[in-house]
Amino acid sequence: MKKNDALKLTQAVDEIYAAKGKSVVHLDLKVNKPAPAAIAELIVGPTGNLRAPAFTVGRTLIVGFNEDAYKKILKT
Asked: Of 2, 25, 33, 62, which has the highest C-beta tally within 10 A?
């Protein structure tokens, strides 16, 4: 998914969890909506496409892999 389409996807969610390495960034878009460039920096990789893995759960977008974050978000 290209950058512009990925940013459109964020308009349909209330939260974003973006894992990079061992850290996870949580954005609550109901409280604070950063500029599109800041969101793109978290969710778009160096190829200009949405980073993988990426999926939605309800109105939450999860990008990248972090096992602890998955357990918390998916409550497994």
From this structure: 62
